[in-house]
Input
Amino acid sequence: MEKQLIPDYIFEVSWEVCNKVGGIYTVLSTKAKTLQKQYKDKIIFIGPDVWGEKPSPYFIKSKTLLKDWQRQAALPQNMKIKVGRWDIPGKPIVILVDFKALYPYKNDLYGEMWNRYGVNSLPAYGDYDEACTFAYASAVVIESFYKFIQGDKYNVVAHFDEWTTGMGLLHIKYTLPKVATLFTTHATSIGRSIAGNGKPLYDYLAGYNGDQMAEELNIVSKHSLEKTAAIEADCFTTVSEITAKECTQLLGRKPDIVTPNGFERNFVPAEEIYKKRRTLSRQRLFDITEALTGERPQKNAFLIATSGRYEYKNKGIDLFIDAAKKISLSPDLEREIVAFILVPAWVEGPRADLKARLANPGIATTPLPAPFITHTLHNYDQDSVVNQIQYLNLNNKPGNRLKIIFIPSYLTGDDGIVDLSYYDLLIGLDATAFPSYYEPWGYTPLESIAFGIPTITTDLSGFGQWINSREEQGVKKSGVKVLHRSDFNFVEISEDLADTILALSHCGKVQRAKIAQAATTVSLEAEWKHFIVHYTQAFHLALKKASLRK
Output
């Protein structure tokens, strides 16, 4: 049997280390505890210092950690770093990199990457410069630390997440050939773009050429960098079988291994605290609904939400609103339903009129103007959610059995209206729905069942496919309903979603408790302690390939 190669040091580079942007933050921050247990303080995360002089809420600075290296670290162009620990379970070591000092050298970097690897940075725009400068700065940090510890004596893995870190991987491969490189794409930039632009991704996948589509959709540089990093990495991974197919077709390399995303139970509070937080969350959601619409929901109202990044079609936000309209017209609508859209948009600030009402509870008897949105937006008239709610006439009139509420802010506990974190708000819900069209894994439904909240997802998400691979199917046995979604079945899936939500709202107390228990039980199967083995294998594959290089 082949001897398992084990890393002595692991560096993991991501734009979302100590920087809460999306699902990758959840991947890394929940995975950290298990990695820290296995590789105690030999796992070092590297992220961007986006905080400057302000303190980061996720970072604990240390004066003693890696002190000897810091004294000797000869970093270029007065590049600054902060060393400390990530304030999450496991408290791993983190190096935050202030990469701004390297901006003036970006064109030299791009020239180098073109000459060595053919990465085409000429048509770049948007966040490309920022991402590449950060990735390069991270590679420079790894290089410095590697030389300090005399890394040639050790098994060292450098793990890079997403296209945003690709240039770091390519730099390390060239300057430190003994370091094993690992590249994980959580979603291909070109696949996301094809789906987001309304083109059918799945039925026509075999006919798409990634380079050609990148030209057509104007993302040549991101795609070029991502494809090159995938091809050049010692080990290439992605998070689900559905994305593995996409990578093979669009990036030209089949992933060596699929590394599905796990979760940690310690994000879920103990029973007594859970009950208190559920009461608080429901109270807050009821208060907001009453202040906006002039009507307080009944005590047994069924609260459901969708959440995630504002990718209107990819995340199925359009479907969620469409299904809400169908429910509002259904003769089967017995119990009051409030549907929440918890998706960050271009927020200006909390609504002053809503704040005033929330400060004086019980006085609201008439709806506010636009009684479906909690914050003001910079682009209210162009916002897709607002436009669809208005187009479908979901206007929250008094007496309506279904209300819809758009909370367009990041739920970090300080948005000015909800003032609860996402997880604390999630506890108050009765169900969630994520009818995604493009969802490489799908953290939101996994988080939901971990909190005992039943969820609805689709078989176009990695998580939905994982649920479908299990023996127990259906919401009553697993707490998860997986809807079949294709390129062209919007109407059918909208009806299925509406029917599933209505069926859940009809469940009695005993049945609800059973479904919640089933959801929690299934979530235990997706803990990192079960899934980390895939990463252990990925480290082995990367080290094995690196060892063959002279």
User: Anything to note?
Assistant: The longest strand covers residues 80-86. The two ends are 25 Å apart (CA to CA). The chain has a mean pLDDT of 95. Residues 252 and 354 are 52 Å apart (CA to CA).
